[in-house]
Input
Amino acid sequence: MKQKHIIIPMGVEKIKDSEYQANYTIESVIIPSSVKTIGVSSFCGCHNLKKVIIQPGCKAIRACAFHDCNNLKSIILPDSITVIQSHAFSQTGLNEITFGNNIKRLNYNVFNDTDIHTVHIGNGKHVIYKSIERYDNN
Output
């Protein structure tokens, strides 16, 4: 039986590529501080995923990690995240997202096919999504 609420065990350093892909049962996931990377398509197609908590420590969200999670409406990312790859949040239900102060790079089409309007980037900076194709703060 698949679980609705996933708690990634402390000590895990990477969520493997496609590990939970197309798992329609998952509704929430808690990612501990030991996880440094959320792999390619890790949660891709998890249509019932509504809540994601990422503890400080994660540094990178790889391509398509949350692609097609159409019930995921908002997410707050910790300061530790510096890179988000292409299509990481495309085709989600996101309408708002908050980044920490250390985001360095958003690759192309991170929010493709979403209803997102405003992106909050650390220290109160607001960026209107339609103006973002790519963000590089190096």
Notes: DSSP finds no helices and 13 strands in the chain.
